[in-house]
Design a protein that fits this description.
The structure is a single chain. With about 425 residues, the protein is an alpha/beta fold. It has twelve helices and 14 strands. It has a seven-stranded mixed beta sheet, sandwiched between helices. It has a four-stranded mixed beta sheet with strand order 1-2-3-13. Helix 11 crosses helix 12.
Length: about 425
């Protein structure tokens, strides 16, 4: 199998040199080139439509990263964008007081999400998780937090500790997904001081396989939280409106005390939601201060209401699950045949191709070679982050992607024989 030709990325690289003089790191965080395959991936996109994106050099890709999750239907969805444009032109969206779309969306979440007796709205996933933690601490009168998963970039949970005083995270303890004994041991020590246990109901650690819960794991987490009087919070930023309309709590049949949502709820518009039992949420009435100039901006409410309407009307998630299963089943067959240490993990709406670690660290070259071949062939997947299926991915997109994955795996096998 011949090596795919390298992409022309001259404009991307030139723009990056400019941006590094203007923006710390050129672009922020996980979007920096070293989080992909440096020198092979574009750095700047120009546009997107449906399930595809185009970079500033004119290269088009089938987009399986979906803006790290928010694009659930597709880029530039006319019905959603038209609703937002109508709001801008017809009524406006940034006021000193709140428009009633807030209430409409909260009613919809109450209908869809088991734990959502009440909701409040913010702009990002980090806003949502931090608000939930603040509410839980106020409600319980306790300070310690048990956490499992990625919960954003705010002081209490960010992995990189630069610029953050130790006292701001010294009461936060981490346990590993599907390791119930780790949580139990932590709570034996700190349980009476624990305000909340926050966990991603589907395990998706950075650069590692996605894990579904072992039998009894989520139930065990809930039982331990109840035993020690801690608030159980599901971080459904990625799983909400993607696994089911009501999140992973519906799919796995475990209802937390609180949950946070974002990403797919508004198909790319900036919104996060904190939901939960009324008695906990009511801490936000007077005990806990939650306010932002932009939290009540109604464009994201309008976008979310329209997105949810379309998802229910067109059975979007049924289609995504069907497409994702077709993709995963076919990729698994290719992985089995190639036998080069590749693995596919996850569930049909969100999956991840990784490579098993080995003593010689061949997996690093295999991973780079694999994702280099994909991007050169116009398939946009990230080597350190799981991908997503969106509604606008076509059967042709999936078949083409499967054929490219086949090429990539055969190339790796051929090099090692």
């Amino acid at each position: 199998m011949k090596e795919a030709p390298k992409l022309n990325l001259k404009k991307s690289f030139a723009e990056f040199e400019i941006s590094k003089k203007l923006i710390p790191g050129g672009v922020l965080g996980i979007r920096r080139p070293y989080n992909f395959v440096d020198g092979e991936f574009p750095i700047f996109f120009e546009e997107g439509k449906g399930g595809r994106v185009t970079d500033i050099d004119g290269n088009e890709y089938i987009d399986y990263l979906c803006a790290y999750g928010p694009v659930i239907i597709g880029n530039r969805e006319p019905e959603i964008d038209d609703a937002v444009i109508e709001q801008i032109r017809g009524k406006g969206f940034c006021f000193s007081l709140t428009q009633t779309y807030q209430n409409e969306l909260a009613e919809k979440l109450k209908e869809l999400i088991p734990c959502a007796e009440m909701s409040l709205f913010v702009k990002t996933g980090s806003d949502a998780t931090s608000t939930a933690i603040r509410l839980a601490r106020s409600y319980t009168g306790k300070e310690k937090i048990m956490r499992c998963g990625y919960h954003g970039w705010h002081d209490w949970c960010v992995e990189g500790k630069g610029g953050i005083p130790k006292k701001l995270y010294e009461d936060v303890y981490e346990f590993q997904y599907n390791r119930l004994n780790e949580l139990e041991d932590l709570l034996k020590t700190h349980g009476n001081e624990t305000a909340a246990v926050i966990i991603t109901p589907l395990g998706h650690p950075l650069a590692q396989k996605i894990e579904e819960p072992n039998e009894g794991f989520l139930e065990g987490v809930k039982a331990l939280a109840e035993k020690y009087g801690a608030v159980l919070i599901f971080d459904e930023i990625r799983t909400g409106f993607r696994v089911t309309m009501g999140g992973a709590q519906v799919y796995y049949r475990v209802t937390p005390d609180m949950a946070v949502f974002g990403k797919a709820m508004a198909n790319g518009y900036a919104i996060g939601a904190v939901t939960g039992k009324a008695e906990i949420m009511k801490q936000g009435e007077s005990e806990v201060f939650i306010s932002s100039t932009f939290f009540p901006n109604s464009l994201a409410f309008v976008a979310a209401l329209k997105t949810i309407e379309i998802m229910e009307r067109d059975k979007i998630l049924d289609v995504i699950w069907e497409k994702g299963k077709y993709y995963m089943d076919n990729v698994q067959k290719l992985i089995d045949a190639a036998d080069v240490g590749a693995e596919i993990s996850g569930i049909p709406p969100m999956s991840f191709i990784t490579f098993k670690k080995d003593p010689e660290k061949k997996y690093k070259k295999r991973r780079n070679d694999f994702y280099t071949h994909l991007i050169r062939r116009g398939v946009f997947l990230q080597p350190y982050h799981h991908g997503y299926i969106c509604y606008r991915h076509t059967k042709e997109d999936l078949d083409y992607t499967i054929s490219v994955i086949k090429e990539a795996l055969e190339n790796i096998r051929g090099e090692e024989q």
